[in-house]
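Researcher: For the record, we're logging two predictions in this thread. I'll number them. Prediction 1 follows.
Model: Prediction 1, sequence and structure:
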Amino acid sequence: MEKKELLYEGKAKKLYATEDENLVISEFKDDLTAFNGEKKSSEVGKGALNNQISTKLFQLLEEKGIPTHFVAMLDENHMLHKKVDVILIEVIVRNIATGSLTRNLGIKDGTPLPFTLVEFDYKNDELGDPKINDQHALILGLVDFQDELDKLRRMARQVNDILKPYFAEKGLNLVDFKLEFGKDKDGNIILVDEISPDNCRFWDIKSGEKMDKDRFRQGLGGVRVAYEQVLNRILGK
């Protein structure tokens, strides 16, 4: 499968057409961005690490019954996956309070939540990806029916129920993470994008050390080393 024309370039990936109209190729970039693109840098090898991590996690989720867009990892930086119509809702899943939840609601950083919180953000860079509720999503036409929003929540919780204990076994707290979904050619809602330290927060269970993009956001350094450690734990090294 070969890359054809460039269809889209985002902050972390480039999307290419293939000879099959139902399949596309994502190229994982080494770029790092934070605060809606206001802070930018790059880390050599970051894209390859995210591709490998996402591949392993998509395969795990598929095995557990979660439909995804994943087809194959072509090489270190390229993933073959199904072409979808992306739903412009970022689904945020939170197990422990930190980040915007702490800033906006005053919940002490690091507080375990009494239940898993699922939130929706409007995927719109110009507006800063604002928080939305179900009525906003329907007014904006981001989905057609309330049932689709209910399905996004249900699938997000199912993903959390799989990944939270999976990472706990590997010595990592899955603090929170962002998921994206899309509709395939048959109209089925499936998990898309990536699952990596770029869009997940991982804290070492023993030390509390941050093993994700917060190292870049907060100027802690060691981004690649942290991502490599996450991959190594997934691989059982």
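Researcher: Logged. Prediction 2.
Model: Prediction 2, sequence and structure:
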Amino acid sequence: MSQPRGPLSQLRRGHEELVLGLLRKHGPLSRGELGKRCGLSRTTLYDILAELVASGAVVTATSQEAPRGRGRPAETLTLNPDAGQAIGIDFARRALHVAAVNLAHEVVGSASEPHDADLPWEERVELAVRLVGSLTGTRTGAGALRLGALDAIGVGVVGVVGSPEAGRDDPATAQGDSAGGQDDPAVPHPVQVLLRERFGVPVLLDNNTRLAALGESIWGAAAGGQDVLYLRLSHGVGGGLVVGGSLHRGAYGLSGEFGHITVEPGGARCDCGGTGCLETVASIRAVLDAFRAAGGRAADVPELVKAVRAGDSTALTLLDGVGARIGEVLAALCNAIGPSVIVIGGELAETGPALAEPIERALHDHVMPVSRHRVSLRRATLGEVAGALGGIALVLHESPLLSRYPAGPDLAEDPIPDKESR
């Protein structure tokens, strides 16, 4: 259903989304019931419904029995769950995650696959095409993938993103590098260009960790929360904020860069250019390097988790110190922002109480006394596909969390250089 973006086509698309939203919220409705709820003229409504039925987005539901003697029962219309999918893709630093929902917002499935950190964008997109095809049952040849009635993809990437729709109609100005960074947040990311070429649909883009925060706030550990702080401890350290019931993006897309809060003045050099950032202490690489330097043996997080479960004193002591630093940062953020829920995600959260308990102790010690028993610390529940699900939410743009989120370009005149924050 991709259409030109002129005023009339935008108005018509708005009418279509209104009707689809009513059917999604209320279930099967008759034309008369839709007319009462949508406020459109009878001619406009019937015209919109005719196109939605012709496209397969809406189908006739089983007619309900009318009271005896009242004649033919009214025909009801409902969403066609098979009409199309909305796709979310998370291009993490060393893995790719995809998820899909159908027109009725039911999760069709999800898939993940690891890859090398320096894999070129062209190959990452080919991997995404294959994974999406495995979920939607589509062919993976060039030009064969169409998403049907929802016709859009939401994408998360590492680093600063200038605008969810930045440059989506101007692919010639793409910039970036194979590691996931973007030289100028005001121009389209290369993945937008490549995905638009392959799928032929709009591609909305945002920081992948902020999208994970959105996913956890809609479907996950913080569902229903109005003030939520999400922290992901992965190959990078970052997060997202829900403030007053809305996802907070920040000027130039810089909200959630918690990994670049200084915890060790004059400490190790960080990829952002600073020193002593939380990311130099609490990222996967930093924790594993510190563990090995202390005499431990672990090539990856699963091996570190095994050491923790075996009661390895080196691992437990290390995570106690890391957790304390994380908790101090979270306490400072709590005192400034006042969240009711803190969600901890990422691979390092797999270490469980060995990390969570020192975080909680530090929170108790450093947060204002009035807040100590009002902040709930929770572990993320959506796992690797949280960012991909957040991408779907960005596409649908129906959650109240996105009520104040920019729907169009919001480009900086003097863009701030990218930070490799995840």
